[in-house]
Amino acid sequence: MTYVLAADPTLADFGKDPLWITIIKAVMLFAFIMVGILLGVWFERKLISRMQHRYGPNRAGKFGILQSVADGLKMGLKEDLTPRTVDKALYLMAPIIMVVPAFLAFSVMPFGPMVNLFGVQTPLQLLDLPVAVLFVLAMGAVSVYGVVLAGWSSRSPYALLGGLRSAAQVVSYEIAMGLSFVAIFLFAGTLSTSEIVAAQQQTWFAVLLIPSFLIYVVTMFGEAARIPFDLPESEGELVGGFQTEYSSSLKFALIMMGEYVHTFTASGIAVTLFLGGWRAPFPISLWEGANVGWLPVLWFIIKFILVFCFIVWVRASLPRIRYDQLMSLGWKVLIPVNLAWILLVAAVRNVIFVRNGTFDGDIYLSAGMGVIIVIGALAIWMRFDTVNQRRKEAKKAEVEAEFEELSKEPAAGGFPVPPLDLPHYHGAQHKEIPSGTN
Asked: What are the transmembrane regions (predicted)?
């Protein structure tokens, strides 16, 4: 591609590293995720507490920064209780199935360009594939097996219901999430994460493909089961969800870690596919050395933290929605709008791209037209939304029934109007009523 810089890695640069370099990069990635989980839990608690005018953790370590370490040690040292009726093999495997795919999905995230690591030129990315984005989606789909098995193996109705809720939710939002990437594939011409980052040298896809980005932001919360879409573990309805029968021990810690890694993976996908990846934002990108060497790791981490802050902000601001609203949003809004947007992008791409693959000047006009069309589609959906129609009809029927009840003539013995066929009640309430009187 004409817009790929010399420092940008391509698929041809992967698979050439010595084994010891691959091991070092894998250890660095694992350390980044584990340290990120410890700092992320602490940062989320501190940020939410400040938004609610509280202090948050402030006892363990300076500013409470060791609180996550203390919580991890506490859960690891607690007594590990296992109910008698569980399927022990699946009960023990479920937390592992939740964690491992989340780590694997993070392995295709590019952190920077080609760098010199201990004398070896290597990309700052563990691996890349021609179908790397599909690999991420597949790992997200596999992890839901851990949730379903955790609920099913517990032999508890509450845990089973939480697992089934999670399966239905992931199916709904995985489809919408996958469709939100199609427009990126059409513009980048590849499914490789490193080449998608290279395709955003001129314009980030968050700006170029605004509807796809907004749809992904919504599906990101549904995929990571974060508020307002944390229905699989809604405490007030399911007594804790699929992890009800897991005691606060190491298995419970693995489940919580798996959910946090999924949040990190969703943030990394947003940065990689929509926010330019490790590329410096404007106007820093005007500096020639901004995207060379180890410095791009800083831009990736800054974008990553900002996306994570947005997720925490939403959690502190919005309530949990109802399950019918969750499914209606996924199937009746996100998927139809996504399909319409993909058709528009496929049509516009043939107009705005010339034969040599460079951008035309009408790209922003076309993107604005796409936004207007999507807004119009949403307006049409709101007009013909069957859920709201049923709600309005039920409210209308309720009002009509109440009016009809009030308009009826009160029967004998009704309250507060006395029976009209017994006038002697007004002046002689204690008079004996003659036999045969109606």
From this structure: 20-43, 89-109, 129-150, 171-191, 203-222, 260-280, 292-314, 326-348, 363-382
State both tokens at 192.
Answer: 């490789």
* Residues 207-244: tens digit of each pLDDT: 888 888 988 998 888 877 787 887 766 655 656 677 77
Cβ–Cβ under 8 Å, residues 68 and 42: yes
Q: Which is nearest to 223 in space by CA: 269, 277, 186, 274?
A: 269
Do the beta carbons of residue 242 and residue 159 sit within 8 Å? yes
Q: CA geometry: angle at 236 spanning 235 and 241, to 5°?
A: 35
Element (H, E) at 184: helix 157-188
Residue 115: CA atoms inside 13 Å, Cβ hemisphere, count? 19
pLDDT tens digits, 352-387: 654 445 544 455 555 556 666 666 666 666 655 666
Residue 393 sits at φ, ψ, to 5 deg, of: -65, -40
Kindly write down the DSSP assignment for every residue of 262-324, as one continuous string.
Answer: HHHHHHHHHHHHTS-TTSPPTTGGGSGGGGSTTHHHHHHHHHHHHHHHHHHHHHHH-PPPPHH
Give, in degrees to the nearest 5, the angle at Cα 261 between 214 and 255: 120
pTM of the predicted protein model: 0.77
Structure tokens at 159: 């845990």
Q: In the structure, how many helices (H) and strands (E) does the chain have?
A: 16, 2
For residues 312 and 48, the answer to whether their CB atoms sit within 8 Å is yes
**Residue 43, token pair as written in the block:** 């940062």
